[in-house]
Design a protein that fits this description.
single chain, 564 residues, alpha/beta, Restriction endonuclease
């Protein structure tokens, strides 16, 4: 029998197949460098060797997909990797890919684009020719028929596993996305209260904080080309290099980055990704003296992961250490509420249980931001009853460019689009105690009547200009469990005689008016909740706090030049 002659190309092919079996994939540049170093060939010959290997189907190109700076990557040919095969190969050679797939396994086959950025420690913008971006990773996994991308009705981008190399059915997709959105909301529901607690502990300075918002949980806090759940700065003596009293600007303070996981277990891949982002941030800072303080918050975490956290010297808090053991009931309740709004479930019982847990734990002040959110949930059944056939959007943010080309944005608690009557109603809600009083204010003062009617309402009218021109009239209502000052009451009387009063609602309801409205529609449970949990002294500076939250949210959206 005649022996088959082994050619030089066969040696190259064997080397490339073995290389890609270990590495999973390589960029064109890296595979050429490997050949040059191994066989001392010229760059031109390296390109020819790779081209022949593709033609002989030893390896395959990612064409037409490109990665990094417009490069193709190469994958070993001849067998189907599959999700689990890719995980096995990438665990050591490509940890970001392994972490992404592992997180998708933990989340029933879905993650948001934002979570993908976090778990892969991928930069927002390309900073080198290496294949490190999330888009490159997704493209590779799409090439391998493992995942695909889809966008929900709110514009949130998700990465989803294929089933038998086929996209899932639309109902299956929608259920996956809706359930996962609830998980994202859970992760950041009490984040403002966590931030406040850290500030009260003097661990961070509350002046320059950016964090994920529960109404836009798919948008993270951008810092140094990376995504975080939150970041702030600290002047704490011993942590910061400059004495606290002298650290009056952020360049004299230490960066604090937060990783918060409350919807699931804080797993080793969460920690590995957090450490990777910390390391990338450290390497990107030119000044050696600049430090970074990582802080993580978890609901549950294995003892093994906790030991690794301790070995790396990371400050970590069990959420119950901050807010008490009742916080678990609160988080579970908030998760239920987020689901209820999707299916029209009655929410009063769950809200009552959550507020009772907060009160029993003595955390009414610590979780006051959450109590405001609960008031928003509490008003949903009332609004849905008054407008049963209307489209009701909760927590919608409207963004436009101003005359100078800068982004301007405002958040609206509810936006109701009704066909009968043909109205679009903008709803502002303030869930404060009975002893609090809402100021009339002006268009520059947050959480006041004129801020809403003179600042955010005209902005919304401009945003919905085409809808209004097609026949729908812009209307508005300001609802609070607190009270108005006399000038505020007079202002509402004038507004009720103007164009913003809707057919079904007046333009403003303070506490007694709200109670009367609830009684009219027989919402007895909601009345009991307001009287029990939203009573007492109004000794909190709501306006100052709301202004801080508004500025934080604006900073978050201004930085959100992201594909979601």
């Amino acid at each position: 029998m005649k022996e088959t002659k082994i050619t030089i190309q066969d040696k190259y092919n064997k080397y490339l197949a073995e290389l890609l079996e270990v590495k999973l994939f390589e960029s064109a540049m890296d595979i050429h460098i490997n050949l040059i170093n191994k066989f001392s060939v010229t760059p031109a010959n390296a390109r020819k060797i790779v081209s022949r290997a593709v033609a002989q189907k030893v390896i395959k190109s990612s064409e037409p997909y490109t990665f990094g700076k417009g490069q193709y990557v190469y994958i070993r040919n001849g067998y189907d990797f599959g999700k689990d095969g890719v995980k096995d190969i990438s665990k050591k050679s490509r940890p970001p890919i392994y972490r992404l797939l592992q997180l998708m396994d933990q989340n029933d086959g879905i993650v948001s684009y934002f979570e993908g950025l976090k778990i892969t420690a991928a930069p927002l913008e390309e900073s080198s020719t290496k294949v490190v971006s999330l888009d490159d990773i997704i493209t590779l996994l799409m090439k391998l028929d493992i995942v695909y991308k889809v966008k929900d009705q709110n514009g949130v981008v998700y990465i989803i596993y294929k089933l038998f190399k086929e996209k899932r059915s639309t109902p299956d997709e929608e259920m996956l996305m809706a359930n996962h959105f609830v998980n994202m909301v859970t992760d950041c529901t009490v984040l403002p209260d966590i931030i406040r607690w850290l500030g009260n502990s003097n661990l961070i300075d509350n002046k320059n904080v950016v964090y994920r918002n529960k109404k836009t949980p798919h948008i993270g806090a951008k810092h140094n080309n990376l995504m975080w759940d939150a970041f702030a700065y600290t002047r704490a003596t011993g942590i910061n290099t400059v004495l606290g009293a002298q650290a009056d600007t952020i360049d004299k303070q230490t960066l604090v980055v937060l990783d918060v996981v409350l919807a699931s277990d804080y797993s080793p891949i969460h920690l590995d990704a957090f450490l990777a982002r910390i390391q990338i941030n450290r390497k990107s800072v030119m000044e050696e003296s600049r430090k970074i303080l990582p802080v993580l918050i978890y609901k549950t975490c294995s003892s093994q992961t906790l030991n690794t956290i301790k070995k790396n010297g990371i400050i970590a808090f069990d959420i119950s250490a901050i807010f008490g053991a009742k916080i678990y009931e609160v988080l579970n309740g908030m998760r239920e509420l987020s689901s209820f709004l999707n299916v029209g479930h009655n929410v009063d019982e769950t809200i009552g249980e959550i507020l009772k847990s907060i009160k029993d734990a003595g955390q009414e002040d610590a979780l006051k931001e959450l109590r405001g959110t609960l008031f928003e949930f509490l008003m949903y059944p009332l609004l849905k009853t008054i407008y049963p056939n209307a489209s009701i959007e909760r927590g919608k943010t409207l963004t436009m460019l101003d005359k100078e080309g800068n982004k301007e944005n405002y958040e609206y608690d509810y936006i109701i689009e009704s066909s009968n009557p043909p109205e679009i109603i903008f709803v502002e809600l303030k869930g404060y105690n009975s002893g609090a009083t809402i100021n009339l204010g002006d268009s520059n003062k947050h959480s006041t009547l004129r801020w809403f009617f003179r600042r955010t309402l005209p902005f919304a009218e401009k945003y919905y200009k085409e809808t209004i021109e097609r026949g729908k009239e812009a209307k508005a209502v300001f609802i609070t469990s607190a009270n108005f000052f006399e000038d505020g009451k007079e202002f509402i009387v004038k507004m009720n005689n103007g164009k913003y009063k809707s057919i079904e609602l007046e333009t403003g309801y303070e506490r007694q008016g709200l109670l009367d409205l609830l009684k009219k529609y027989r919402f007895e449970a909601e009345i009991r909740i307001l009287k029990k949990f939203y009573s007492g002294a109004g000794n909190i500076d709501y306006e100052e706090e709301s202004e801080n939250n508004e500025q934080t949210f604006k900073k978050l959206l201004d930085d959100a030049e992201l594909p979601f």
